[in-house]
Design brief:
18 helices; 71% helix; 3% strand; globular
Length: 454
């Protein structure tokens, strides 16, 4: 009787590659890395915009790129492809995170969800109120949505730098807060930052969305039909006048979140499969020559896929390209702000910059911490385990890091006012810098190191 043992084949250069790639892979998967990369890209964009390469940088972004066939082509500048196309993929990941949190995450239990929901609502309403108070009329009022958004990558990256000085529940609270915040920003973009509507294209988009829902209800789990219909949905949304990036959110909400097999059935089946694999192995140890062994392993692979929710698989696969490709490219394309020392004082004292800076730094702090305090004192909810209001104040400060989503909304709100867009982006950068540093310092000096054994 042959003994069932596992042999490992090591390629000639495999160990050398592992010595290089393993530390790199560990670094990439750290929570701080995406925030660091985003910060690096923002600095690079700022440097280029204030160097001799400034003209070439803007010329590259305005270059036209056409996709399609004769008779049906979409022609947009590279800048538009990034903001309308790549960011749709980012919103797809946001949508998958939203769906997971609502169904099985921090937002699934209403009792636990109320705390971050109320805090997030405060973190949206107060910044908007501050901005409108400073910019009550004229086209500058169009920027009211800018200070309501929190950049989850930057905020989480900054928070994670504190290591064991903060409880893990604070990271969870920030994620839930940012998810609700993103949902609010998405609704604002859909309702208030849509200029003209093409009814035919909108009806087409609604029809495609209905078809995607039918696929979900019909138990279709393969990603290809969703991807193909998602592309058509994006095109229809682009033509409709509603911002095309919202197609990513709609598509995400149609991806199945329930696995085919439950865990109990999978455990039962995997035991049977392993027994059959052992029997097949006895006949021929080389899997290349053993058709039965290969088919059993293939069946095991299919089972492993079916015990996972399609939405969860997609979220995991899309996290890397979103965090390490899409958002950095967006940063490079949108953070390039020319700073003129002579006019800098005039820019930062402009009502738009003041409204954004005050909204993000003060509005987020008082909105998040204030509404959270009121929710607890009124008995609506309670503080998550292990947290105190010093932690909530720290998150309130870090909530003012509005980089990605704030710049995105600024591009929509001031699309026809280049000077105000420049002022808005400057305000966002200044506010994000103040919020990140102040939040980090507050938590560093008010939190004690946590013993990992307790």
């Amino acid at each position: 009787m042959k003994k069932f043992v596992t042999k490992e084949y090591i390629a000639p250069w495999e160990k050398a590659f592992d010595r290089v790639l393993t530390p790199l892979e560990e670094f990439i998967h750290r929570q701080t890395t995406s925030g660091i990369l985003l910060m690096f890209c923002a600095i690079v964009a700022l440097y280029i915009a204030n160097s001799d390469w400034n003209e070439s940088y803007h010329h590259l972004l305005q270059m036209k790129l056409s996709v399609g066939v004769e008779g049906f082509q979409i022609s947009k500048s590279i800048h538009h492809w990034i903001n309308d196309g790549l960011m749709a993929l980012f919103f797809f990941v946001v949508g998958l995170e939203l769906k997971r949190e609502i169904l099985v995450g921090e937002l699934a239990d209403m009792k636990h969800a109320l705390f971050p929901i109320i805090a997030a609502i405060g973190g949206m309403l107060v910044p908007v109120a501050i901005y409108i108070a400073i910019n009550p009329q004229g086209h500058t009022m169009d920027g009211w949505g800018i200070p309501m958004a929190t950049d989850i990558a930057f905020a989480l990256g900054t928070l994670a730098l504190l290591g064991n000085r903060i409880p893990k529940s604070l990271l969870t609270f920030l994620v839930a807060l940012a998810i609700v915040d993103d949902l609010g920003a998405v609704l604002v973009i859909a309702v208030f930052y849509t200029e003209t509507i093409d009814p035919t294209a909108l009806i087409t988009a609604a029809g495609i969305l209905l078809l995607l829902i039918v696929l979900n209800l019909g138990g279709i789990r393969r990603p290809l039909p969703y991807i193909l219909l998602g592309i058509v949905l994006w095109i229809a949304m682009l033509m409709s006048g509603v911002h095309a990036t919202l197609a990513g959110i709609f598509l995400a909400f149609t991806i199945p979140m329930r696995p085919k097999y439950d865990a109990e059935r999978f455990v039962s089946q995997i035991n049977e499969m392993v027994a059959k694999i052992k029997d097949a192995y006895k006949n021929e140890t080389n899997i290349v020559r053993n058709d039965e062994l290969r088919s059993r392993v293939r069946a095991l692979e299919i089972g492993v896929k079916l015990v996972q929710a399609p939405a969860q698989i997609m979220e995991r696969k899309m996290h890397m390209p979103s965090a390490y490709l899409i958002i950095p490219i967006f940063s490079l394309a949108n953070a390039g702000i020319p700073i003129d020392g002579a006019s800098f004082a005039e820019i930062i004292t402009n009502p738009v910059a003041i409204g954004i800076t005050a909204g993000l730094v003060l509005g987020k702090l008082f909105g998040i911490a204030g509404f959270a305090w009121l929710a607890v004192k009124s008995g609506l909810t309670c503080l998550p385990h292990g947290l105190n209001f010093k932690h909530i104040i720290g998150v309130g400060l870090m909530g003012g890091i509005g980089f990605t989503m704030s710049i995105f909304i600024a591009e929509l709100g001031f699309a026809h006012h280049a000077a105000d867009l420049l002022i808005a982006k400057t305000g966002i950068l200044i506010a994000s810098l103040i919020a990140g540093i102040s939040g980090f310092l507050w938590l560093y000096f008010t939190s004690e190191k946590i013993d990992p054994e307790h």
